[in-house]
Each structure stands twice: as structure tokens, then as C-alpha cells.
Amino acid sequence: MMTWENRWHPLLERWVTVTSHRGSRPWSGGRVTEAPDAPWFDPSCYLCPGGERISGIKNADYTDCFVFDNDHPAFKASAPAPEPAPGIYQSARAEGLCRVLCYTPDHGGRLSGLSEDQFKAVVRCWRDQTDGLMAAAGYEHVFIFENNGEVVGVSNPHPHCQIYATPFVFHTVAQEIQAVARYRQADADNLFDAIIRSEQADGRRILVETDDCLAFVPYFAQLPYETFIVPKGSWQRLPEMPGRVLDDLALVLRAVLKMQDHLWPTPQSYILSVHQAPKSLSVDHDYRCYIRLQPMLRGPGLQKYLAGVETGGGQFLNDGSPEEKAAELSAAGLLVSKES
Ligand SMILES: [Zn+2]
């Protein structure tokens, strides 16, 4: 069935245009070739155990999660004082902290390939990093993300993510916080609960549902296989979640990543981000910690370009109907369960 309509994105308060009739349009460029299987250890890799980093520091011979401060940080306490800004402009020191988290010593591994226990350990590491950085002076917000695949510019395939702590809130999270507050004012309801109820009432876009979490391709998805993993309880940040919920979040995210990787013979490329509340957000604010997965391939080896309409105009055109893409992901999930 063709879907061709605008859909309101309640968290970003903007329209998304679903144009599923364009998904199979003639295409002669942007095919991504698969990287050859990487070895489990690469002596030249600066993320492998014992690897030498640009700073000259050698990594520990780690066996589980391994965290270190990024040698090329975008934000750092010792960033230089800014030049005075001319005219109406403003400048500020690029203060903050950037860390790298290697999920596993296995150079050729992948987040989706971690065992259940390894995956739970990664999410607990995200929790502990958030906890420590939120307790430290000078950081208002912790943003955790993984860039996965060459199409999102990853030069080192060693499975890892990044943890940024900054004295200000990143724009998308700030936007979402405002949208959630405006929704409360207008509709006297929690926007996340309203989204969960709307997805449950329809049901077609749900990928995984447990007692504590819901994973779905949102009605308002901006990308064909975009997926939200939303805990059902009102936790603003990872450290507030009980261990039971953290473990469940880990297993649901793992299941979703496996679905994404089983769509085609080649694995998906994606941006994964953990959205959580800044330190000073009022405890009774409705904002909720959740995970957003933005896959960057719209077909096997086919890169989704963010071109004029998206990048120039800020208007997303989604070539895939969220209902159909959710069905494809669920079918891929059946393949996963047959394998295991
Ligand atoms: Zn490596």
C-alpha cells in the first residue's frame, strides 16, 4: 500500500513527509560496498587492547567495556578562551568532556553481536558514566551516541560509542524538552505516555514490547527504519532506572539491532543516541530517557542522503512507510529467532 502524506512529529514539533511511492525510484548511485570481515585483533588499531593511541598512551589489556578520554575531543575543560565575537555574535569556550567506550576487545565485533550479558554490561556502563558525570561539577548534560558504519563517517570499525558531557544541552534534546512541556500545558498529559498509547492502539509499528519497554518505528519516523526504544516508566536519566529496567532496555535494544542487521545480507549503518534529561531539569518535568536509532541505509547497500530538503530545508522526506518498514523489521526478527 502506498503512503503519501505529512505526519506530525510531536517531539520535534515539525512535519515529516512520508513518500513511500518514491522508495523504489530509479537509482544509479550511492551503493555502499560491504567492508571485508575485520579480524578480532588489529595491531594497528588504537581501540584494541594494548593499542597505542595518538597521545602515546597504551590501552589497558581490557576484556570487557573499556572507557577512556578521547584524544581528539570536541569539548574539553582546557579548550582555549574564545576570540571576542564581532557584532551581534556570541562565543563561548568549548568546555566539556569527551570519552570513548569500547564495547568489547573484539575488533571485528559489533554491538548487535554482543551476548546478552555483554550487552547488559554496556548499558550499565552508560548508566555509570552518566551517574559519575552528572555528579561532577561543570556538566549539565550527558549525551551518549554511536556512529556505526562508513556511511556515517566512521573510520575505525572497532565497536565503540562516545560519551559527551557538556555545560549546555544539545539542541535536539532541548527541543524535545520544550515540546514535552508544551504538550503537558495543552493536553494535560505526558507526551511519551501518549505516544506509547497511540502506538499500542495501532500496533502495526511495534517491534518489541515487554513489561518495561516499548520498541517501535514511530508513526512520524523521519527515516525508513528509524526506531525508538522507550521505557514505560518516568525516568529522566539512566541512573534513575532500576536494574531490572536497565537490563530490559539492553535486551530490547539488542533485539532491535539484530532485526536491523538481518534485513539484508549486509549489516545496517546507524546513529544510535541515548536521550536523557539535563542536570537542572525539574524533577516533575515529563521528559523521559529513551533511545533513538537512526538507520542510514534505506535498502541493501543504499545510502539515505540527507540532501536539499532535509539539510537545506529541515524537512524530512521518508521514502518508506513506517508500517511497512516495521513489518520488514519484524520479519527479520523472525529470522533472528530461527538462528538462535
Ligand atoms: Zn580494534
Description:
The chain is an alpha+beta fold and 340 residues long. The protein has a single domain (4-24, 38-76, 94-339), classed as HIT-like (HIT family, subunit A, 2-Layer Sandwich), CATH 3.30.428.10. Helices cover 27% and strands 21% of the residues. The protein has six helices and 14 strands. It has a nine-stranded antiparallel sheet, with helices on both faces. Helix 1 (116-135) packs across helix 4 (243-261) and helix 4 (243-261) packs across helix 6. The longest helix is centred in the middle third of the chain and has 20 residues, at 116-135. Bound molecules: zinc ion. Zinc ion binds next to loops.
How can the largest sheet be summarized? Answer: 9 strands, antiparallel
CATH superfamily heading: HIT-like
Question: Judging by the overall fold, what is the CATH architecture?
Answer: 2-Layer Sandwich
How many distinct domains? Answer: 1
Measure the end-to-end span: 32 Å
Order of helices and strands: EEEEHEEHHEEEHEEEEHEH
CATH C-level = Alpha Beta
The whole-angstrom Rg is 20 Å
Give the bound compounds: zinc ion
